[in-house]
Design brief:
By secondary structure, the chain is mostly beta strands. It has four helices and 16 strands. The N and C termini lie far apart (67 Å).
Length: 284
């Protein structure tokens, strides 16, 4: 049951999008901007809430957002580069004459698939209650399933702060291949890590995962950055983990000094036979 219901005579809808990177987006479908506390919910033309529906049972609600890229902070480059992937969305109703944040909650959602056509976007949102409809379970694999650097209970426990480094690009081959010749780390130290730019055209966009890292400081990302990478662009670089037991045992030993590296927190099962092994017929 809702804790409060907005007066239907002055009812308006508001949306708060909290991305994993960058600033929060505040939207309203009222004809004027609404100020609530220190934040202004924008009413810029060019977007609309579409298809908002909910049921009285446990069925998840539906909420879509349509608009023109470049309006109210939802820029084309941010959409394409994935800044809003898995962002949290808080929808609520309030009154335009006395707006109150989350006065009548309509739901909390995860921003899902976004399609773009002719500079217009449509973002689908999955309500958190829909998680009850998802099949869950643990999968036993040779690779570690934990999030690298996770500090949660039984997590990876490698602290990312002390091993995060910064630098500037010294040469560029493409938007996915560039180099910092001053880097002295061993080859693949940053493999499967992330790189984010703090200056230049790509500043503020989401970090990209690193495909390969060479000993001469050359970095290749899985995806190309949206804007052209320039010599002199500053970056933040986080090492990665390829989820192998030898990574836990050997790669982090010089930092952790435990004698076993981080293998005590390794979550994979290195001795599970592969299908090619357990599917072989028996023999004599």
């Amino acid at each position: 049951m809702k804790p409060a219901v907005a007066d239907r005579r002055y009812r308006v809808h508001c949306l708060r999008i909290v991305p994993q990177w960058g600033s929060t987006i505040y939207l309203t479908d009222h004809v004027r901007d609404l100020v609530m506390g220190a934040n202004t919910y924008k009413t810029d033309s060019g977007y609309q809430f579409s298809g908002q529906a909910s049921e009285a049972n446990m069925s998840p609600g539906v909420l879509d957002l349509e608009g023109i890229a470049g309006i109210a902070g939802i820029d084309f480059d941010k959409i394409v580069s994935g800044v809003f992937d898995n962002a949290r969305v808080y929808a609520f109703a309030t009154t335009w004459n006395s707006p109150t944040v989350d006065e009548e909650p309509l739901g909390v959602a995860i921003l899902g698939r976004t399609t773009i056509k002719d500079n217009r976007y449509t973002a689908e949102m999955m309500m958190l209650v829909d998680a009850l409809n998802q099949s869950v379970g643990k999968t036993y694999t040779a690779a570690c399933p934990k999030r690298f650097g996770g500090q949660e209970y039984a997590g990876c426990k490698v602290a990312l702060g002390p091993i995060t480094v910064t630098g500037t690009i010294t040469s560029v081959t493409s938007n996915s291949v560039f180099r910092d010749s001053t880097r002295a780390e061993a080859a693949d130290y940053f493999g499967e890590g992330t790189i984010a730019f703090t200056t230049g055209g790509n500043a503020g966009l989401k970090p990209m995962e690193i495909k390969t890292h060479a000993a001469d400081g050359t970095i290749t990302t899985h995806e190309a950055f949206y804007y052209t990478v320039q010599v002199g662009d500053a970056y933040t670089l986080v090492p990665g983990c390829r989820k192998r037991q030898e990574d836990c045992r050997d790669k982090w030993e010089p930092i952790l000094l435990t004698g076993r590296g981080n293998v005590d927190n390794f979550g994979g099962f290195s001795f599970i036979p592969t299908q090619s092994t357990y599917a072989k017929p028996g023999g004599t």
